[in-house]
């Protein structure tokens, strides 16, 4: 997999090249806006990491020009600018994600994987979080290194949660998604489902917020 | 501190004292002058009577004027050349004949008399008047001259006080303007209605305000720039630590690497919070929009649920729905996140953290309760100070979280209190009081 790294800082550039290579990617590193614009026209990159503060042409301008020229390479912005306005501006210009420096390498790799999965996921219909994958076709669920096909009710529960990772769903919201109209629901039915999933995939698969509901982390 | 006397008081004391002294001297001089003039006039009268005195009528034969006090009467006595008394206007009032012509004082009938004596060729005339009567006439005249001046003294005080008050009231306006001025106001003080003598002072203050603002802006810019610039080397450090950890075999180096990573993480978090604080110090008020605090708070709880799960803390939420408030959603998110984050940081594994949002009379109250050790003694007073940490032994925490939270609360007009729980459970209670949307 080829990755385009657009970064003017030598320290960060060297570190990232080493980290990405260690993760099994091949990296092309460019250090200024003009070269970056040239390189982005090459459609062979699976993903581009873009720093905003570049010499010559600013990162935002590089991104705008690339999207105007219909370059579809997914772009992950890595920058020291964390103001909400520049985050919004970056995403509006067509960036796929935005990571503020300093960050840790595993975080960057997870975001890159999520981005790639999101691109690919449109075909294979999977719901992804940083820690779990749910295949909506095969009903296979992966978490904590285990993959299993879920029974219908457990799948419906996980689908409800994985549709909105990072959000707490109340009991009523989940029951609405799992059970049909007029169906009698045992009072502890949900606890049984959740207990079963946690037994198979670990306690971290579903988080409980007492009094509010359940969620899966983003 | 000793207070320097006020301009108003000093001016008033000096001017009134001066007016009083000048008035008293004028009144005294008028009194003395008028008294001596009257004495001279009365002496002249005595002399005129003596020069023109004829045999006249005895007092007993002359009808007294109804309003005349017998005391006021002149005593006119005449002698012939042989020294025999030939006329006496006040019978029985024997004032001895003075040997020389001219004015003198003489005793008769237990009283002092002012006497004018005239020795002629064949007779002598002597006219006398009681000294008490003369003194009374003189002092009445002198009083009449001095009294108006004395009355003018308090009147002049009144006028001077009023004039001073009117002049200095304009200064009070200026002082009021300065006292109620926000530290964020950069507009110069108005120069209209300022007395001419004070114009240089006000202009000097305006210059100072401009320089202070520039210095303040430079300091904020420096903080933001420094934090921002620190991010790049920190990022490089974290990446290289990641590279080292990925390549390192599971040897005894791993704990060292993890400590290094934790240090870099903390430095990164600190830089993050410094930047946030620098932004919150900007005078621009947060844009005001309506949003649902309940949804936001639940979101913040969800954000921290994974951390609670990892630490083995039972996280609970009791959030009343539909609590619309006015403010900047991102800032309020930071406020809530800091309070929940603090609770999770200081609560040990197996503990409980509860997040509550409820309606109050005038608005809403958001509360975060933990089951940690609570605030140590003496911490309460310093909680909101920058870089203060109530429990430095906890590895996490920059000491900026509550400073940021308070700043956000201030910008929104929220109340914020952090104290030990009072329900018998060990732990901290953090409460945000928010006014309703109509407030």
Please describe the topology of this protein:
The complex is a heterodimer of chains A (218) and B (439).
Chain A: E1 2-6, H1 10-22, E2 26-30, H2 33-40, E3 47-50, H3 59-68, E4 75-79, H4 84-92, E5 97-100, H5 105-124, E6 126-128, E7 132-135, E8 140-143, E9 146-149, H6 152-163, H7 171-178, H8 189-201, E10 207-209, E11 213-215
Parallel strand pairs in A: 1-2, 1-3, 3-4, 4-5
Antiparallel strand pairs in A: 6-7, 7-8, 8-9, 10-11
Chain B: H1 7-52, E1 75-80, E2 85-88, E3 102-108, E4 111-119, E5 123-130, H2 131-179, H3 199-247, H4 253-280, E6 289-292, H5 293-311, E7 314-319, E8 324-327, H6 329-346, E9 352-359, E10 363-370, H7 401-412, E11 415-420, E12 428-435
Parallel strand pairs in B: 7-9
Antiparallel strand pairs in B: 1-2, 1-5, 3-4, 4-5, 6-8, 9-10, 10-12, 11-12
Number of beta strands of chain A: 11
CATH class of the largest domain in chain A: Alpha Beta
Strand order of the largest sheet of chain B: 2-1-5-4-3
Q: Could you give me the name of the CATH homologous superfamily of the largest domain in chain A? A: Response regulator
Task: Specify the number of helices of chain A.
Answer: 8
What amount of the residues of chain B lies in strands? 15-25%
Under CATH at level 1, the class of the largest domain in chain B stands as: Alpha Beta
CATH-defined topology of the largest domain in chain A = Rossmann fold
- CATH superfamily (homologous) name of the largest domain in chain B: Histidine kinase-like ATPase, C-terminal domain
Query: Which oligomeric form is depicted?
Result: heterodimer
Describe the structure.
The complex is a heterodimer of chains A (218) and B (439). Chain A is 43% helix and 20% strand. Chain A has 218 residues and is of the alpha/beta class. A 5-stranded parallel beta sheet of chain A has the order 2-1-3-4-5, sandwiched between helices. Chain A is elongated and about 65 Å long. The model of chain A has no long low-confidence stretch (mean pLDDT 88). With 439 residues, chain B is an alpha+beta fold. Chain B has 3 domains: 22-148, Beta-Lactamase, CATH 3.30.450; 197-278, Helix Hairpins; 287-435, Histidine kinase-like ATPase, C-terminal domain (Heat Shock Protein 90). In chain B, strand 1 (75-80) and strand 2 form a beta hairpin. In chain B, helix 3 runs antiparallel to helix 4, helix 4 packs parallel to helix 7 and helix 6 packs antiparallel against helix 7. The longest helix of chain B has 49 residues, at 131-179. Chain B is rod-shaped and about 160 Å long. Chains A and B meet through helix 1 of A and helix 3, helix 4, helix 5 and strand 7 of B.
């Amino acid at each position: 997999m080829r990755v385009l790294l657009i970064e003017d800082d030598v320290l960060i550039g060297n570190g990232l090249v080493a980290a990405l290579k260690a993760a099994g990617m091949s990296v092309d590193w460019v250090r200024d806006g003009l070269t970056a614009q040239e390189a982005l026209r090459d459609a062979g990159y699976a993903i581009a990491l873009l720093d905003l503060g570049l010499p010559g042409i600013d990162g935002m301008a590089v991104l705008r020009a690339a999207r105007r020229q219909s370059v579809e390479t997914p772009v992950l912005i890595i920058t020291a600018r964390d103001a909400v306005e520049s985050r919004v501006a970056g995403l509006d210009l067509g960036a796929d994600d935005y990571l503020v420096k300093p960050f840790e390498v595993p975080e960057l790799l997870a975001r890159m994987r999520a981005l790639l999965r999101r691109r690919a996921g449109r075909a294979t219909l999977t719901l992804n979080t940083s820690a779990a994958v749910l295949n909506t076709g095969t009903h296979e669920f992966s978490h904590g290194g285990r993959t299993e096909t879920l029974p219908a009710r457990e799948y419906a529960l996980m689908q409800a949660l994985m549709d909105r990772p990072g959000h707490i769903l109340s009991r009523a919201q989940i029951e609405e998604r799992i059970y049909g109209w007029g169906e009698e629901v045992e009072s502890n039915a949900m606890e049984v489902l959740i207990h079963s999933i946690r037994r198979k995939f670990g306690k971290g698969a579903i988080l409980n917020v007492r009094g509010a509901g359940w969620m899966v982390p983003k | 501190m000793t207070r320097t006397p006020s301009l108003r008081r000093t001016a008033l004391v000096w001017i009134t004292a001066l007016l009083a002294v000048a008035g008293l001297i004028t009144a005294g001089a008028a009194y003395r002058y008028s008294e001596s003039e009257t004495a001279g006039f009365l002496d002249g009268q005595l002399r005129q009577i003596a020069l023109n005195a004829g045999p006249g009528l005895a007092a007993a034969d002359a009808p007294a004027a109804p309003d005349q006090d017998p005391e006021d009467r002149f005593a006119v006595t005449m002698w012939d050349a042989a020294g025999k008394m030939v006329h006496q206007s006040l019978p029985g009032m024997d004032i001895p004949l003075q040997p020389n012509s001219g004015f003198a004082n003489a005793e008769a009938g237990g009283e002092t008399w002012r006497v004018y004596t005239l020795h002629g060729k064949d007779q002598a005339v002597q006219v006398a008047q009681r000294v008490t009567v003369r003194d009374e006439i003189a002092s009445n005249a002198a009083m009449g001259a001095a009294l108006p001046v004395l009355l003018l003294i308090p009147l002049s005080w009144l006028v001077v006080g009023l004039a001073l008050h009117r002049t200095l009231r304009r200064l009070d306006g200026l002082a009021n303007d300065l006292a109620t001025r926000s530290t964020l106001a950069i507009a110069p003080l108005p120069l209209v209605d300022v007395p001419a003598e004070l114009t240089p002072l006000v202009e000097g203050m305006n210059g100072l305000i401009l320089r202070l603002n520039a210095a303040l802006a430079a300091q904020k810019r420096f903080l933001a720039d420094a934090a921002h610039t620190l991010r790049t080397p920190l990022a490089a450090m974290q990446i290289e630590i990641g590279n080292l950890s990925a390549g390192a075999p599971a040897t005894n180096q791993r704990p060292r690497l993890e400590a290094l990573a934790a240090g870099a993480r903390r430095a990164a978090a600190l830089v993050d919070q410094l930047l946030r604080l620098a932004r919150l110090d900007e005078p621009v008020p947060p844009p005001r929009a309506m949003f649902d605090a309940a949804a936001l708070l639940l979101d913040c709880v969800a954000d921290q649920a994974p951390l609670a799960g990892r630490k083995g803390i039972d996280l609970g939420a009791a959030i009343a729905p539909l609590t619309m408030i006015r403010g900047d959603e991102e800032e309020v998110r930071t406020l809530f996140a800091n309070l929940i984050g603090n609770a999770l940081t200081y609560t040990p594994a197996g503990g409980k953290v509860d997040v509550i949002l409820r309606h109050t009379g005038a608005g809403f109250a958001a509360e975060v309760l933990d089951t940690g050790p609570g605030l140590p003694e003496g911490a309460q007073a310093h909680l909101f100070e920058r870089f203060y940490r109530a429990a430095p032994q906890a590895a996490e925490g920059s000491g900026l979280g509550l400073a940021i939270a308070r700043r956000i609360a201030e910008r929104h007009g929220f109340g914020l209190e952090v104290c030990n729980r009072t329900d018998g459970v060990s732990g901290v209670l953090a409460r945000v009081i928010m006014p309703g949307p109509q407030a």
